[in-house]
Write a structure and sequence with these properties.
This protein has about 450 residues and is α+β, with helices and mostly antiparallel strands. It is about 35% helix and about 30% strand. The protein contains 16 helices and 19 strands. It has helices at about 15-25, 55, 60-65, 105-125, 175, 200-210, 250-255, 260-270, 270-275, 325-345, 350-365, 365-375, 375-380, 390-400, 410-425, 425-440; strands spanning about 5-10, 30-35, 45-50, 70-80, 85-90, 100-105, 130-135, 140-145, 150-155, 155-165, 190-200, 215-225, 230-235, 240-250, 280-290, 305, 305-310, 320, 325. Strands 3, 4, 5, 6, 11, 12, 13, 14 and 15 form a nine-stranded mixed beta sheet that branches. Strands 1, 2, 7, 8, 9, 10, 16 and 17 form an eight-stranded mixed beta sheet that branches. The protein has a two-stranded antiparallel ribbon with strand order 18-19.
């Protein structure tokens, strides 16, 4: 009789590994297939993993000190025009409490570390010889029988399971194959993420960014960083490197005839950023497609008979101006998909009706609740004014307010009126303010 797994997971990223860890601890028999040479080998993202779900998967991971780079203790939002920057800065001791609410990660390191933890959970389970992490394998087809997903095909090999969790990432070919997503994702629902990792001696990095121990800084940028293209920038501190990059609207990038790398070079040359990365050596450059966080970009459904869609494959992401949340959404969705698979195993029911509990669990979680609550903020951030007019106005005011030139000094209100007159109208700002108040 052919061997059949309780679950097959396609993709060894954060969503897939989180599902695998949950299944291993429940003594389920599963197969995780990753097309990279190792988990994390093909991941070019990296940034901040928010929330406390990592502590749920790996209790007291901070004591081991492996996998992550730094915990986030300092947060900064910077508005930029061509020559200036005006920042909102927040630092607090509460960030150092464990479990940390945010850690910076490099995915090639983090995913490989988490995969090792999954293997430890497999070895400690009741079926250590019946669950596997298989790498360097490409899944070419999701097998369907009478409208129900029953397994996958990789080359000439076919593997069957009671259910499949697809966690293949944003370029979700398998999700399209089974009819849960259109033939292509509209360009206004995806963006291009471009990033460099720059190496800097650990002691110099700590001094430059005023870090202590494993504490770290996250800095988001709005305005001239994107050279007039819809989007924004980021800088995250790692142990001895800096992650610096941009997320740019794909349609707007194309319409304005600009390339991601040219825009990134302009960002690096800005006087504020140039000071931050001075003497740092570029050791990695990468680019990939990411979701914009528009809930309309999600597949038509994230479950069907015998299958669930998790992580980036389900376009689970949110950027409402406070933080870019994607990895934490992937982790929570992987956990919830696996818990639904465990529930289905207990009842021996892998129908869409049963697996629909995954959707319900996501709807009851912060993931879809926040995505629904902050859709107005997502759309607001993609308005032209937010990456041109607003940062230009703020920096104009900042130049006036912080300049001392031995001339009579206007009141701050007069400075603001002058800045508004140069960059916008009161009516436009009132309308934008009302939208912002509603969105946040």
């Amino acid at each position: 009789m052919e061997e059949k797994f309780d679950c097959i997971i396609v993709g060894g990223g954060i969503a897939g590994l989180s599902a695998a860890m949950t299944l291993a601890r429940a003594n389920a028999r599963f197969l995780l297939i990753e097309r990279g040479e190792f988990c994390g080998a093909k991941n070019v993202s990296g940034g901040v993993l928010w929330g406390s779900d990592l502590a749920r998967l790996v209790p007291e991971y901070w004591k081991e000190g492996q996998g992550f780079e730094r915990f986030v203790a300092h947060r900064r939002l910077t508005f930029m025009d061509r020559q200036s920057a005006f920042s909102v800065d927040f630092k607090s001791d509460h960030f150092s409490e464990t479990p940390y609410t945010g850690v910076t990660v490099l995915r090639a390191v983090f995913d490989a570390w988490l995969a090792g933890k999954v293997q430890e959970a497999i070895d400690a389970s009741e079926h250590p010889d019946e669950s596997f992490i298989a790498t360097d394998i490409l899944v070419e087809e999701v097998i369907q029988e009478e409208g129900r997903v029953t397994g996958i095909r990789a080359g000439d090999e076919v593997f069957h399971a009671n259910c499949v969790i697809i966690a293949e990432g944003v370029n979700n070919l398998l999700t399209r194959q089974i009819g849960l997503e259109k033939a292509y994702v509209p360009g206004d629902h995806v963006a291009v993420g471009v990033k460099e990792v720059l190496r800097l001696d650990e002691a110099r990095l700590a001094d430059r960014f005023q870090l202590s121990g494993r504490s770290g800084l996250t800095n988001e940028f709005v305005g001239a960083c994107s050279d007039g293209v819809e989007g924004g920038g980021f800088l995250y501190t790692n142990r001895d490197t800096i992650s610096l990059g941009l997320v740019l609207g794909m349609n707007d990038l194309r319409d304005k005839g600009k390339t991601p790398y040219d825009v990134l070079n302009g960002f690096k040359a800005h006087p504020v950023v140039a000071d931050m990365i001075r003497d740092a050596e570029t050791v990695e450059y990468s680019a990939h497609v990411v979701s914009t966080g528009d809930i309309k970009g999600m597949p038509s459904e994230i479950f069907a008979d015998g299958v669930m869609i998790a992580g980036e494959a389900a376009h689970l992401l949110l950027n409402a101006g406070k933080a870019i949340q994607g990895m934490d959404y992937a982790m929570r969705s992987g956990i919830l998909a696996a818990e639904t698979a465990i529930e289905a195993k207990q009842s021996q029911d892998f129908s869409a009706s049963m697996l629909g509990n995954y959707r319900k669990a996501l709807e009851n979680s912060y993931v879809l609740q926040d995505m629904r609550s902050f859709q107005d903020a997502v759309h607001l951030l993609h308005r032209q004014e937010m990456f041109s007019t607003v940062p230009d106005l703020i920096c104009d005011f900042g130049r006036q307010f912080f300049t001392v030139d031995c001339n009579p000094t206007p009141k701050a209100s007069a400075m603001m009126r002058a800045a508004i007159k140069r960059h916008a109208s009161y009516w436009d700002l009132v309308k934008l303010g009302l939208k912002g108040a509603k969105a946040l």
